[in-house]
Write a structure and sequence with these properties.
Length: about 350
Amino acid sequence: MIPHKNNFLEVRGMNKTRQAVFLSVMFLAMNVFAQNLIEYKVVEGDTLWEISGKFTGKKMNYEKIALYNNLKNADRIYPKQIIKIDLDEFKVSENTVKAAPAAVKTAVKATVATAPTAVKTAVKAAPTAVKPAVKSTAVPAAVVEAIQGLREDFDTPKMQPALKWYDNRNDCSYEIKDGRLYIQARGDGHDIFMDSNTDAPRILADLDGDFTIETKMNFTPSNNGSGAGIVIWQDNHNFLRIDRVLHFQTRNVINVSGAAGGKWFYSEEIPYTLELSYLRMERKGEMFTASCSVDGITWFNFKPVEFKAASAVKAGVFVLNQWNKGNSDAAFEYIQITK
């Protein structure tokens, strides 16, 4: 031990040679500890998710970093805030971090030029797992004339005939104005949740076989359970959706969820706080891949989901208003379907 009242270089019970070796080891250990404890100053546009990926090699470690820094909300960090990262906790060295290759198509991030002053939370890394859809015999779809692809930019007062309006309760509305499609879900109880409630207003096109559907959406959920996004629709028992939604007034997320054979399944949601979002759903046989982006260039792909839908389905955009008396409004700048 090193006595407090004696000279620091004097260690009781050791000769000078052993003292020198002991102190060298101590200084080395202290130096290693200092190297592995990082203090990072947050800059505009940072997210804890990105910081975790940069210094630990895994963006999913953001929760541990939040806990280490006593952050009550991991989605809220601010410029000039100091974030401490103990690399020993993640069993990586500084060299490992520097040498780690950048992940391909990791979390999308807004550029500094377009990012608002407040630090926003971009999407995180891939969810750990998606529960596979319950295997069931697909319900035959009605015979329809499937389109071969389209691009609707809403630059005229009327949509292309292939896009059709669905409003089960006849209490919602849509409007095409200034190059955007505005959909409003009025009152509460407009959801896409199997037989219990599938009354969310939506605009859908009939599709058959493989396809990709994409949209650019402006939407900020203000009420619990309000959301908007893309849905792949077969019937009340079989559908898959990706939406920007607010859960329990605290969790702003992009979520992938759906039902197969009348049984509900989810993927893990990812935090998202920006108003603008690009959403996409791709079908290849029975595999569906949902994606999101902040700029329409760099995309984050969710884990592909096995979804045994019929070959003929409907696909399009929708707006949710699950539990609130107020309205839920979303604006779509385009819908693009490719085959």
